[in-house]
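Exam revision sheet. Question 4 asks you to relate a sequence to its structure. Input first:
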Amino acid sequence: MKNLLLKHKDPALAKLSLTNPFHFLALGFGSGLAPKAPGTFGTLAALPLYWLMMDLSLSLYLAITFVVTVTGFWICDRTANDMQVHDHGAIVWDEVAGMLITMIAAPISITAVIVGFVLFRFFDILKPWPIKLLDRHVHGGFGIMIDDVLAGIFAAICLQLIHSQWPLI
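Answer key, structure tokens:
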């Protein structure tokens, strides 16, 4: 796997190795290497993890999501430093965390997953205030993660509001 990245056209990616657990996680299990829309692929990479977690108690789901998010600050910071690029598009662990946040206490249905996915991508791409402000002015691992954490919170609130009006079966 290391040779795959060494031959990559992007010099920042050539500095990484998928055998390094920090790099592997920061790149969303490799999904961040997608040539187009790596953030969308990173969000998709969160779905198997969500499906493993969706039947857990709310407290256990929250605990795991908290660990994924907090460790993400360090994972993303370390990988960005190794790449010598702040918030490279291939770093998608923030999307993994954001999608898990979106799905907190969500109804367990394919419809909820699709709506949650669309809402999260909407907020992550458009970056309404204060997401855009944080994205522009906060750096390091915290800066990489915080905009997606907020996008996930916004998406989770919207998902709950939608579900309260139109149950997502």
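Marking note for examiners. The radius of gyration is 16 Å.
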